[in-house]
Structures are given as C-alpha cells and as structure tokens.
C-alpha cells in the first residue's frame, strides 16, 4: 500500500473514532457525575442521634449547591461523583455541638435532578466538530478523486505487454496486448497479423 493511500485510510479511521465522541454534547457528565458547584435536587431521610429530622422525596426534593460553604463537607463529599438516579443507602458522620458529639445519618440519598450543571460549555467542541467534518469531507473528496485517477490509470488504460506503452489493440488469436509500434510486424507472441482494437 502506498504511503498516500495509507495516510488517507488512517485519516478516515481517526475521523470514525473522534467524530462520535465529539458529537455527544449533553451537559451532564455521565462519567464524572455530580461535580462541585452543580445545583442538584436530592431525596433522602435524615436523622440526628437516631431521631427523625426531615424527609425529602422525589416529588418534593431538597435543592442543594454542591459546595461545602452551603452544606456540610461530609455530605458534599458523598454527593460528588453520584449520577442521576443513583442511591446511596447510608451516609453518616459525627459533628460536635458544644463539645457533645452528634451522629448525623442520611438514608436512601438519591440524586433526582441536575438543576444547574457547571460542566464546561462544549460549544467549542461543536465548532471543532464542524471544522473537522468540513476538512474530513474535503479530504474524502480529494482522496476519492485521487483513488479514481490511480485506478483508472491501472485498470482502464491497458499497457503494452512488450514495452509498457499505452496499448491500442490485442491479438485476435492469443489476446496478447500490444501498442501500435510493437504490432507493426504482427503479434510478438504468436506472429498473427489480425488485431482487435481496445
């Protein structure tokens, strides 16, 4: 395989690998889940020292900014990385209230909804995708023309078997392909004087 053909095939493979990944422009990050500064809705039941304190359901969730300046760092650390619909059955930590430890417990903590996503804007990725698609389209067009030209020269245009010049005819008896100069004294293979024009 020629170097130019190999490079063209490599370009097509790279396009097939990268274009699908760039086209996924949803804001919520399925890989990283909830991130710092996201605003989310959460459902859970909470207890302090074994006593019920509050319950938030999927129909009436608790809205929270994922930032330890707004809510307890332990709870934030548990929320980071969770995905929509994911449930943590039990989250607990201890806090000191006037020197007395209190146990905080959250049961069935579930991410209900991402209200505000802080993932980076991917409009740059869309612009890159469009530019890449245009360049890939032009490359594909030029590559196709090049391949057709090379194939035409190898398949459609026959070469003289004896000298390699462009063939004009073939022997009617043995089908030996020759040019007009090599066929002046008859077929070089069998001596026949009858030819079929190509």
Written account of the structure:
This protein has 198 residues and is α+β, with helices and mostly antiparallel strands. Helix content is 31%, strand content 28%. It is built from 3 helices and 8 strands. It has helices at 3-23, 73-79, 123-156; strands at residues 39-48, 51-56, 62-65, 87-97, 100-116, 169-171, 177-178, 195-197. Strands 1, 2, 3, 4 and 5 form a 5-stranded antiparallel sheet that branches. A hairpin with a 2-residue loop joins β1 and β2. α1 (3-23) packs antiparallel against α3. The chain is rod-shaped, with a radius of gyration of 37 Å. It starts with a helix and ends with a strand. The model is unreliable at 22-27 (pLDDT under 50).
Which word captures the global form? rod-shaped
User: How many β strands by DSSP?
Assistant: 8
- What integer is the average pLDDT? 79
Helix content: 25-40%
Number of helices: 3
Main beta sheet strand tally, sense and closure? 5 strands, antiparallel
Annotate the secondary structure layout.
Elements: H1 3-23, E1 39-48, E2 51-56, E3 62-65, H2 73-79, E4 87-97, E5 100-116, H3 123-156, E6 169-171, E7 177-178, E8 195-197
Antiparallel strand pairs: 1-2, 1-3, 1-5, 4-5, 6-7, 6-8
Helix pairs in contact: 1-3
Protein traits:
single chain; alpha+beta; 5-stranded antiparallel β-sheet; 3-stranded antiparallel β-sheet; 31% helix; 28% strand
């Amino acid at each position: 395989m020629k170097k130019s053909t190999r490079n063209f095939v490599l370009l097509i493979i790279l396009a097939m690998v990268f274009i699908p990944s760039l086209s996924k422009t949803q804001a919520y990050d399925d890989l990283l889940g909830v991130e710092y500064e996201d605003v989310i809705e959460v459902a859970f039941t909470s207890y302090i020292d074994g006593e019920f304190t509050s319950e938030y359901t999927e129909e009436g969730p608790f809205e929270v900014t994922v930032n330890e300046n707004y809510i307890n760092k332990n709870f934030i650390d548990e929320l980071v990385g969770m995905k929509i619909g994911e449930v943590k059955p039990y989250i607990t930590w201890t806090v000191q209230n006037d020197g007395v430890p209190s146990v905080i417990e959250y049961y069935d903590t579930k991410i209900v909804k991402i209200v505000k996503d802080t993932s980076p804007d991917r409009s740059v990725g869309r612009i890159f995708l469009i530019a890449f698609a245009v360049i890939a389209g032009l490359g594909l067009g030029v590559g196709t023309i090049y391949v057709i030209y090379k194939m035409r020269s190898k398949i459609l245009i026959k070469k003289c078997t004896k000298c390699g010049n462009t063939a004009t005819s073939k022997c009617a008896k043995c089908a030996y392909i020759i040019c007009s100069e090599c066929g002046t004294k008859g077929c070089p293979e069998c001596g026949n004087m009858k030819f079929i024009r190509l």
